[in-house]
Amino acid sequence: MNVAQNAPHPAGRLVFATATNRASLSRRHKSGRAIRLAPGLYAVDATLPPQKVAHHHRFAVVAHIWPGAVICDRSALNGGEPVDGWLFICHPEPPRAADLSLPGLTVSVRLGPGALPGDMSMPEGLHLSGPARGLVENAMSRGRPREGKPRRYAGLGAVEDRMDEEARTGGAGRIRRLLAQLDVVSGYFGERQVEDVRSRLAALLGTAADTRLTSTRLAARLAGDPYDEHRLDMLERLARYLQTVAPVPRPAVGGSTRWEWLPFFESYFSNFIEGTQFGVEEARRIAIDGEVPAARPQDAHDVAATYRIASDPVLSRTVPASADQLLELLVERHSTLMAARDDKRPGQFKLVQNYAGGYAFVAPEMVRGTLARGFDALAPLTDPLHRAVAVMLLLTEVHPFDDGNGRIARLFANAELAAAGQVRIIVPTVYRNNYLAGLVGVSNGAGDGQTLYSVLDFAQRWTATIDWSSYERADAELRSANAYLDAGVAESSGIRLRLTT
Fold first, then answer.
1. How far apart are CA 274 and CA 283, in angstroms?
2. What own/partner pairs with CB < 8 Å and gap ≥ 24 does 82-91 have?
3. Cβ(398)–Cβ(226) below 8 Å
4. Residue 187 to residues 46, 193, 196: CA-CA distances in angstroms?
5. Are 463 and 449 contacting, i.e. CB atoms less than 8 angstroms apart?
6. Could you read off the pLDDT of 381-400 as tens digits, one per residue?
7. 18 class by beta-carbon count within 10 Å (0-12 exposed, 13-18 middle, 19+ buried)
8. What is the per-residue burial (b if ≥16 Cβ within 10 Å, else e) of 59-88?
9. Which residues pair with 88 in a beta bridge?
């Protein structure tokens, strides 16, 4: 016998009280063998907390009391899940009109159409409002809900945001399908709310007159300047965090000779991180002496071009004063950086979505808008290192070009430091995994950027300890600091980047 298949579920069995079992269920409840979810409703032999039991059985409960109900309104926009502990449903002839309170969950019903074309099947014979129906339902505007009850309808702002998302992920084809679905279900809803939805969808196809909008996201898309709100929120959270961090100035003191070889090693390590790997002596001959190895002319150009930008006293210190200038400088720097790689479209923003390990960066049509709004989000930051960290995140998350994005991000971050006379940041090979972990942590929502700041703060502190006055002296100190070691090998061996002083 397969014991696992016959093991009771930790949420127990859902049992509704009847005249024949009511007394038995009451005794089970008093003895702790049943959880009373609501009057006449029990979960027998459950071992989970009551809130989790109620959540597990939510569809069965709804189907028992309101057979054939439709999960609608804000719950529809939330993928059929509760919103703030409330599950919103509708029914053409609700057997019960009052809300049903369960542990951690309240089911709220209203009079409304049953399943319509385009609605999606759910467990227990329930349905979920289809995409067009969900938009129309949430476009309703009614008075304030009673105290203690959240709004049932998301409102036009949320509806417009969802339209922006639909256009971003599905393009014009998705919008046309929504309009077709709207035609099918429109007769079940008020004329005004249907028209509110129709006019906005039509505007996305460029076939409607101007419509007053609530959502800044949809307005930006219709103006031809859409942006990625998730990335903007990510950047704003980082900016708020950085404003709580006390600045630690690290001026590049000691005269220009003290830092003479920093641009070369900055370029060498920046390319090595991206897979353009030469021995440091060969890279020196490429960047300084102009030597071009016959077998790898494009890779050699990448190193030489990065060095050209990093060592130029003007280019390396030029920072944008506006969002428009940011776009211009990005195009200029990328044109220089990738000039030897026509297949990478030097100086042109990407046309195809790019990824790293399955993680999608900003969609091509949102590059300009996200860069512009992201730049504005940096306005509260005045400390050079804080701005460098934020610029690093902005350009990494947008990934505006087909290739060269990491090098561009590091060049622009260092320009913020160099323009203020602060020590630039070098990310040596051994520190690569720490650097990437800091970026990935923000991408995955692990904090607001604390790890990324710590990683770059340490990298700047480490860079400040190296004597960059000559190639030989810098090379010797880098070897002593383990800077050249492969990050994976160093990590498995317990070797770390060392502060030399």
1. 14
2. 82/55, 82/58, 83/150, 84/150, 86/149, 86/150, 87/58, 87/62, 88/152, 89/62, 89/126, 91/66
3. no
4. 45, 11, 14
5. no
6. 999 999 999 999 999 999 99
7. exposed
8. bebbbebbeebbbbbbbbbbebebbeebbb
9. 108
Secondary structure of residue 264 in the 3-state scheme = helix
Contact 256, 410 (CB under 8 A): no
Is the Cβ–Cβ distance between 65 and 40 less than 8 Å?
Answer: no
Task: Tell me the one-letter amino acid at 133.
Answer: R
pTM: 0.76
Identity of the residue numbered 303:
V
Report in angstroms the alpha-carbon separations of 245 from 15, 123, 197, 382. 55, 49, 45, 12
Angstrom distance (rounded) from CA 436 to CA 439: 5
Which residue in the block uniquely carries the two structure tokens 């995955």?
444
* Chain segment 344-380, per-residue pLDDT in tens: 999 999 999 999 988 999 999 999 999 999 999 999 9
Q: Which CATH superfamily is domain 229-493 in?
A: Fido-like domain (1.10.3290.10)
Digit-coded pLDDT (tens) for 247-287 = 999 999 998 899 999 999 999 999 999 999 999 999 999 99
Q: Exposed, middle or buried, 39 (CB in 10 Å: 0-12/13-18/19+)?
A: exposed
Q: Where are the domains of the chain?
A: 130-224, 229-493
Helix axes 297-311, 262-273, angle to 10 degrees: 140
